[in-house]
């Protein structure tokens, strides 16, 4: 049985955003992540998101190129450059 719900995604405005380099001594659970500090304000409007659930025995169809054929195809580095390979901005 398909279940349909509609949710509101409230808008926000980033007034400031700071992204720091990853800490070399960070614990394994967060190693490689960039600390982020932001200052934002909520706005008085939202996007409306219609969502559907599907039972496990009847998943929705996806275009053939949307599903990776193997775990290697799903690696993000196969589809975009690393920051270190991108060169100057």
Task: State the distance separating the first and last CA atoms.
Answer: 49 Å
Instruction: Indicate the mean pLDDT.
Output: 76
Number of helices: 0
- Strand percentage lies at 35-45%
DSSP strand count:
2
Major beta-sheet overview: 2 strands, antiparallel
* Basic shape: flat
Radius of gyration equals: 20 Å
Structural class: mainly beta
H and E string: EE
Written description of the protein model:
By secondary structure, this protein is mainly beta. Helices cover 0% and strands 39% of the residues. It contains no helices and two strands. The protein has strands at 3-19, 36-53.
Throw out a few tags for this protein.
mainly beta; two-stranded antiparallel ribbon; 2 strands; disordered C terminus
What's the SSE blueprint?
Elements: E1 3-19, E2 36-53
Antiparallel strand pairs: 1-2
Short description:
By secondary structure, the chain is mainly β. 0% of the residues lie in helices and 39% in strands. The protein has a two-stranded antiparallel sheet with strand order 1-2.
